[in-house]
Amino acid sequence: MTKPGVTDQIKFLPKRIILVRHGESEGNVDGSAYSTTPDYKIPLTKQGMEQAKLAGSQIRSVVSDSGSTNNWKVYFYVSPYARSRSSLREIGRSFPKKSVIGVREECRIREQDFGNFQITERMKIIKETRERFGRFFYRMPEGESAADVYDRVSSFLESLWRDIDMNRLNHDPSTDLNLIIVSHGLASRVFLMKWFKWTVEQFEHLNNLNNCEFRILQLGAKGEYSLAVYHSDEEMQKWGLSPEMIADQQWRANATSGEGNEKCPWYLDVFFDGLGADSDDDNDDEKVVL
């Protein structure tokens, strides 16, 4: 029996994984809303609903190649928070029922836990402290750090790959599958951090997504996902990616599946000040001293 090659494996992979932040919420407009309404119940504003509806139209244009093909399907994952589910509902208006092969509520992609009711003046001090301490490791009192969110998003990613490997999404490989994850700004950033093996320092320089802004991880010709297949260098720079990170995305767009960014020439430099060139000295420990 012939072992499946890279081309055969690519057929079963989603063509795109699209990360979408929810639309504008009442908490985005007035931070005091969190002091009286539980975070998970914060609703969208009217503007947020319009943003989500527009995002749905834009995403449909992406997955259908601007309407030039009908050979595609979508599968949704959504955070259980009210603003995410409402955003999904508006996004979904752009998709015919026959094109949606499934949807799943996923608690692991929920918003960072900031504690229970959030008192405005106290949260202002906490967020100022977070900037001094470091956004990734600072743990909110009675809540989570970005590192905690990273852990649960990592667990979600493992489940996502099992769903894909075992075809729990009922994907017909004759069609293009697009996974659309409707979530939150931080959850989306740590998803990208985990996926592309970005360091904590690189994460600290990332900018948050705007309401209903989305990021598209698209499958390259040889089986690696990359932001650079769809997005421009200028967009990625605006999001806070460094020149090295952008170069990595460009490399991934044409890399063979499974190679990993450790092969990029700059990757080791992230961890070392500089490694010496190979020389005969490498074998010094094998020399016998007489």
UniProtKB/TrEMBL annotation:
Transmembrane segments: none
Record-listed substrate binding positions: 21-28, 83
Protein name per Swiss-Prot or TrEMBL: Phosphoglycerate mutase-like protein AT74H
Positions annotated as active site in the UniProt record: 22 (tele-phosphohistidine intermediate), 111 (proton donor/acceptor)
Recorded GO MF terms: catalytic activity
Organism: Lactuca virosa
Pfam families from the UniProt entry: His_Phos_1
Domain of life according to the entry: Eukaryota
